[in-house]
Amino acid sequence: MLAQFFPKLQTLFSPASIAVVGASRDETKIGHIVVRNLLDGGYNGAIFPINPVATTIAGLTTYADYHDLPKTPDLAIIALPAALVVEVVTAIAQKGTKSIIIFSAGFKEVGTEGAALEEKLVALAEEYQLAILGPNCLGLINPAAHFNATFGKAHLTPGNLRFILQSGALATSLFDWAASADVGLGTCVTLGNKAVVSEETILRQWYETRKTISSHTRRRQEKEGLSRYQPIGLYLESISNGREFLRYAKEISHDDPIFILKPGKSSGAQKAMQSHTGSLAGNDTVLDAALEQAGIIRCAGIEDMFDLARSFAWEDAPAGPRVALVSNAGGPAVMSADMLAEAGLTLAPLSQKTHDILVDHLPRAAAVVNPVDVLGDALADRYATAIKAVLAEKTVDALVVILTPQLMTQIEATAKIIAELAKKYGKPVVCAFMGGNTVAIGESVLNTHKIPSFRYPERAIKALGHMWWWQTWRQKQRTEKVKPIKISTKISAAIARLVAELEKQKQAGRVALNPRVALNPIESNDLLKKIGLTVPPSAACASFSDAQKFLQKNGAAVLKLASAQVLHKSDQGGIITNIISSDALKKAWDVMAKKVTELRRQKDATATVQIQIQKQIVGGLEIIVGVTTDPTFGKVLMFGAGGVMVELMKDRHLHLLPLDRETIEELVASSAIFPLLKGFRGAKPLALSKLYDLIARLAQAAEQLPVAEIEINPVIVTADEAWAVDGKVILQNL
Amino acid sequence: MLAQFFPKLQTLFSPASIAVVGASRDETKIGHIVVRNLLDGGYNGAIFPINPVATTIAGLTTYADYHDLPKTPDLAIIALPAALVVEVVTAIAQKGTKSIIIFSAGFKEVGTEGAALEEKLVALAEEYQLAILGPNCLGLINPAAHFNATFGKAHLTPGNLRFILQSGALATSLFDWAASADVGLGTCVTLGNKAVVSEETILRQWYETRKTISSHTRRRQEKEGLSRYQPIGLYLESISNGREFLRYAKEISHDDPIFILKPGKSSGAQKAMQSHTGSLAGNDTVLDAALEQAGIIRCAGIEDMFDLARSFAWEDAPAGPRVALVSNAGGPAVMSADMLAEAGLTLAPLSQKTHDILVDHLPRAAAVVNPVDVLGDALADRYATAIKAVLAEKTVDALVVILTPQLMTQIEATAKIIAELAKKYGKPVVCAFMGGNTVAIGESVLNTHKIPSFRYPERAIKALGHMWWWQTWRQKQRTEKVKPIKISTKISAAIARLVAELEKQKQAGRVALNPRVALNPIESNDLLKKIGLTVPPSAACASFSDAQKFLQKNGAAVLKLASAQVLHKSDQGGIITNIISSDALKKAWDVMAKKVTELRRQKDATATVQIQIQKQIVGGLEIIVGVTTDPTFGKVLMFGAGGVMVELMKDRHLHLLPLDRETIEELVASSAIFPLLKGFRGAKPLALSKLYDLIARLAQAAEQLPVAEIEINPVIVTADEAWAVDGKVILQNL
Description:
2 copies of one chain form a homodimer. With 734 residues, chain A is an alpha/beta fold.
């Protein structure tokens, strides 16, 4: 269970004094290691080790009990067996300490007993407004404050790169990597079971304190060779509170990039996650849509995340997608051109002027177009000539430098020149020094000057591609105008009546099936009409002669089996189309009547089964529009190709509610069937504006009504109408 | 221009004596460096430096002229300006040397003048049967023979990993990487301009000498901790002779894995390739299909290639897809489960027995399912327990071990235990020791024991996925039965007549348009009928009354504009469907007649434009079947969704000709519309067997006829027939 309040985190991240409960003289114990880590990190506040027996630990005076402390510490760190933790937290809270880190394992992750203990912690946190990190976590570091509150080997070179990790082990790899790659870190937090403090608590803290990252700070960072950002990397197995998470992430993303590693695409990972942190996977495609909306970059893997972390820590995102490549190797340059395209980037065109400079200064065999091949025998000065020329070029937004170790290659000197020119021209530069030990010296120089370098160009280019994606997201955010849709008061009133009616039915036990109750097709149609959608004329037929009359009036008809118990009618032969004659109608009626009898026999006697007749919409294009409820992110609209194409094309496009008209148009335009909607190969365009209207109304209604799911499949879009032909409505478990 | 013969390569790869033409006393010159490299590499044959002035170079006696040499060297290496090369090659050939490496640049890659020089080399090679490597190459190495014939810094630890590289610079990175990663190399060749020796020449050599890789050698390799294979890595920008290349590659792939890095997916890379090596890109999707057929693994990037190289050098491919993960970190293990699924692998299920062993020996909080989480505080012995248990498990085909550097982690000891157990159980094991400098010692131990280790689990898993793909390819090859299709003599005769007729027409100037000539739709239909396909009844109409008669007889009809000049009829309104009444026919006829008049006015007077009427096939599913000619690989069959779905679904499936019935069935089954063909959601299956027959006949005919392209779009498949509705035929440039 997650706490329902947002604790303040200042004293958790930057405490003025710390107590370590469970401090130990035994150097192999966590309770000793954390005291050692605090001291070794150069923490300059008071440290109070608590131990009932010892008098000093690591040279510090110990206290037998929390109540004995001479002052109230800002932060308490607990390294005790799980069974003792609740009592200790009570004492800590009573003393007035508001921030607590709990290393102890043995809570929710080990079963119901542990979960009960954890709930007690949550209750205490709510009662005393405690910021509890963990339990079952590795703690956190804040290098700028010389603060290492972990029991791992941490890296305390301060920098601008922040992390929130739902895996302590990944943090140890991160610290080791950062130390080796000369990457400085900001506050890095491991979450553990996130009983109280979770990712959105921390994001909110960082959102609220974002103004403290002044433009002065950002300028200082740039002077140090860093980027303007304070990027945030996330490793999460679950997202505790999707909407809050997105809200803060989206705000932060305007200024500082957020990137995430989130497993759970495969069923294997979903099971493993459940065993690792008890996390249940939501729908991964909904997650993708949600992250995209909030400007969060989803990393493809751990390498991808570390590469991007370094790139964002050291380089600003490119202002455009146009990349120049300078290489002493033709093959890798050619491969890189493919990789640029894959990463959503382009080869920058070079002007005649730059071309002339290159022709004048490079050997005849060099490639003077982009990618620029300075040839295998290039010394540092030839690299300098080419790099200067392309960085000075207006059309170049970013540069990738590739180096292979030829016998004459000046690896170190070339690295220095790259660093110098990158600083001078202020455009993002990433490098690929390809090889083994021979190129390591170049990498080391580049690290010192905060130029990201990778052993393979594809890694540099992938990172650049992510950065550009984020940049386009930011640019788009600035120009987007949110125009909320207004539903007419008449429709609102109708919806209100329907909600009331549904509630009444619920209370009368009529829709009492749990956990989800489907409306029958006739009720669904009714609902769609009430929210203002155009539904083909239809009727429930009590007798064959009713159907005959309907056919005479409407020309072409469809017979449908109408039952809340039959959700997939076409699979069960419950739809007969193309009825244009009385004979055909009779035949269809007999088939359907037989099915009704069967169904009434199979299902319980109260099951409502009817035959529905509907006017057939001739021609047009079938699409699917629906709203579902995601357990993490709430209501989501889905749009795509309909009918049999649903299964064939995997053309599903998602967006969290609410959505404005522009977003709806973008969503429709992104689908694979859009070419057909707007008129394919000279065909007439279909009624797009009616379709947008249908989607807008459906979305609006789905937010206001107590429904878990509405799916219209198909919507048939003709030249002048968007017909809601067949709707399925599932009520929320009220 | 490529030589048209296959030179023998023994003396190129393992010469008993070598002359260096253009040897130099200047230590910065290529002509000196290569002599130095030969000596430093420990080459133990005779070396004859040729220099008109010097008496000794690097302590070796020099000769003024090739003719002066005391014996005929097996190999000549040329390091002279391009202008001198032809004369020198003539002298070398006259002396009787058969193998030549030319480092010199300034040939085809610099323009027409150079190309003319290169053609002279090719002519000499053909005249004297010379194996010329280059020009414009870095040479080759053969570490087993202590033979470094490059002017780069090479790595001469012998091993089993072979390479063919159309990039000298990539070779220098490869050598540096191999030295740093303790990877031994076999023969590695850089191709340069491949005037004579190209990738398929070398593959043929390796195919013909493959028996010399005895099972004894393979066993010795395994004793040394290597795999049983002698893998081949390729970097190619062009494939000189597609069919020959595939032929040898496919034969070799049965025993030894081949993997390739081939740029050219993007237009940027295609342009860059042309500038780098003058290579024109073929169709990349055809390339993909061709490589897959030959069992060649296509690498996604340079890192992917190097990772796979190391994995194949050190580990056999897994016998099955079931992978066990053992990790001291939950997060990376969870991510790895996702990556396994992406790589086409599965999480191995563990038996009750293994489960019990793990429960008995691991701490309570450990995950005792797969992925096995031995927890952050695991020492080497706990890793040992878990690894033994899973490697002993029958259901485990391969193991991935993940390690993060916790404070107590025994990195070196764990690496040693992994090496020991990998050897004992003989299953493929790959590792991810995640971090920076702290984990490097573990990697070093693993390298020594030839256990592939990567910094990130996704890299280990991707490599394993490639290996498993190759294993399935091999397994499939063994069971595949090729049943060639027989075309009836009647059809063969008809085809023969048609070929003759086309030739006659060509000679009469009737189809003389170059380079490609399209048959008009009526001729195309005729051709399809003659090769035994079922074409809907159709006729060319001279008058409206012809069309009327046709409609009366056939019930429903389509009017088409029939002209070889109009290839995309529907784009130009040249198809009117659904004609079922005389009135509708009149209306359609008038529209079409107007178009005919317009076309005759626009095009030259001789253009043949007619109105064609065809019986309309009602219902059924539209697909597309075609054969095109790829410049590299020749004739290729294409199958996929037809009609408007062609553009929407990108459902194209390719296979080089010829193909047998089983392959046809597999091809159809792999398409996205297969569910509709075999009967979707309870619908009746369509006439699949007729469709297979149509494809088989079309493929057979396309091989026998002088056609560049035949496309049938749509083929309409109904419940009992596969109708070739609309065919487009383009003749070869005869």
